[in-house]
Amino acid sequence: MNAVEKRERHFMETILTSEARGGDFAALTGRSFAPVAASPVFVAAKNTILPTNGLADEPIHGTTVIAVKYKDGVINVGDRRATGGMAIMYDKAEKVLPLDDFTLMAISGSFSKAMEITRYLRHSFRYYERSQLQPMSLDGKLSELGKVISGNQMAAMQGIGLVIPILSTFDAEAQEGRIFFYDGGGARFETAEFGAAGSGSTQIRGVFEYIQRTQGAFREMERDEALKQALLLLEIAADLDAATGGAGKVLPLAKTITKDGIADVEEDVLRGMVRELVGRDPLLVGAKGY
Amino acid sequence: MAYNLYDWNQSLQQRNEYVEDRLKDGSPIVAVSFEDGILLLTLRSAQQRKIFDIYDRVIMGALGKQSDIESVRLAAIDNTHKEGFERSPDDVSLQRLVGFALSPAIKRLYNDQTTIPLTIRALFAEMGKTQADDHLFVLGYDGEFAIKKNGAVAAGTPFAETEAEKGLTEANPQTISDALKAAITAWGVGKATLAPTPEKKKNDYDRDEDEDDNKPVDPAQSIRDLLAAGGTVEAGILSRTTRRESKFRLLEAGEVEPLLTEYR
Q1: CB B81, CB A127: distance < 8 Å
Q2: Are A177 and A69 in contact (CB under 8 A)?
Q3: Candidate list A63, A64, A83, A118, residue with the active-site label
């Protein structure tokens, strides 16, 4: 059977049998992040570089991404710096990525692995929705991401390709924004008000608390107020963490999720806030204007 | 058993008749390419959806047997998602999907004398960067397909398609409301053209003797009839300018209703 015949046979079989695979994209592509049984390499790695908090202590790509709730949903902001070891590799990395109309993933850790996971999840969610004629449930999406992270655990333990994401979404049933974060093993936790990930996130943890106690809950804030606080947090992280880029060079990314879906914060609003915060306009202007 | 050319011809004809008989009462699907994107529209009496999202910039609508529509729809979704993931969403095109994946497979099924051919007539639409880059493909039960520009109709007979497409090309709609209007009108023309002709009615023994056989069916009347019987409009658009992640969405009843008042 030549290649053309093989391809035709494949589609004929698809058409003839028409067995929907329950919308399972991993089954379609054979690409899965399913956990691999412990191998000798894994055991060896476990004894030598297993870090105390489940994260690798090898230098990984640093960053800070922040998700905070506000009156109408959730805001995500992220710096634009990508690092490799001590070197700053790239100034325009996008770390706040839409997975579908109502789901944003803010990524920290290995950039290449995160992009791969994003690409996989985007296709996985949409494949399910398009083939099954109903969107994947929120819980289904959260599990899918958990599966991917736990499947990636072995590589992460060896110090390559650890990804810690924050997932933000708008819950249409509850009519409110929701924020989830994951540990390196794929367990998920829901947070009430805010979430942060990346090498700069630990330094600013107390600042979140301070803002809450002095300014009131994030979920009560107007969008611009919450955005201002998130940008301030990001700027503090940039000051305290070498792997987080400040707003002074390139505009940070800022996206919102509301009942109407995902939207970029208008550039002039963002620019105005950064000017107020840093005292000047960002030095670099990219192709998209920021 | 001897199998001669006559048998072969006869069997092909029987297969064609089998499928065409089942297609001819189907509700036409209309596609219109306009400035902001592409509209796919049909009117239906059942609850079953007929217009589907296939990939980021690809949608389809079809008439025929529901099970066959499902098979082709799933094959199209599998093919595009696999290609989009393993290569790039930019490499997913209708030329590749219909021309090299679906059409040869459907053709093979049609040629296979041991199976029943698919009962389907499908319309695929691909949205490009500008209206000039939009592509419309009409795919038949025998694997044959036609590539159209600006407007296309999939209906139960070739005559109904040509008649309905005439009006579409003349209308040349630019806005979504113009596109909706033109599509509904085209649907009416297609449906009315499918209605039994006077000659056919004469051969129909159940026919009411008092019926006026020479009166052609009014396109608007076929729309009115369906709406009066509780039918609904199903319309989906791919938008070039939307800020949403998904370019595709089904229009809500409220968005279509203003254009239906003249048929109520």
Answers
A1: yes
A2: yes
A3: A63
Token digits of residue B3: 């199998």
More confident residue, A55 or B37: B37
Interface test with A, best of B70, B73, B79, B85 (most A CBs within 10 A): B85
Helical axes A205-215 vs A223-240, angle rounded to 10°: 150
- Report ipTM (2 d.p.): 0.89
A202 is catalytic: no
Q: Which residue has the higher pLDDT, A9 or B6?
A: B6
Q: Please answer yes or no on whether B77 and A131 come within 8 Å at the CB atom.
A: yes
Question: Are the beta carbons of A160 and A41 closer than 8 angstroms?
Answer: no
Query: What length is written for chain B?
Result: 264
Tens digits of residue pLDDT in B124-175: 999 999 999 999 999 999 999 999 999 999 999 999 999 999 989 888 899 9
Q: Enumerate domains of chain A plus CATH numbers.
A: 58-275 (3.60.20.10)
Nearest-5° Cα angle at A203, A202 to A206:
90
Q: What is the DSSP letter of A95?
A: -
CB contact under 8 A, B70 and A18: yes
> Is B125 within 8 Å of B33 (Cβ atoms)?
yes
- A8/chain B closest Cα distance in angstroms: 5
> Exposed, middle or buried by CB within 10 Å (0-12, 13-18, 19+), for A157?
buried
Residue A57: C-alpha distances to residues A44, A147, A195, B101, B234 (Å): 16, 23, 22, 48, 56
The Cα A251–Cα A281 span in angstroms is: 9
Averaged pLDDT for residues B40-50: 92
The residues with which B236 forms a beta bridge, in sequence order, are B40, B250
| Domains recognised in chain B with CATH numbers | 24-202+213-263 (3.60.20.10)
Amino acid at B263: Y
Closest C-alpha to B263, from B234, B217, B205, B224: B224
Closest CA to A55 of A154, A204, A162, A203: A162
Question: Does the pLDDT value for residue A17 go beyond 70?
Answer: no
Q: Are strands A82-84 and A103-109 parallel, antiparallel or unpaired?
A: unpaired
Q: Are B42 and B76 in contact (CB under 8 A)?
A: no
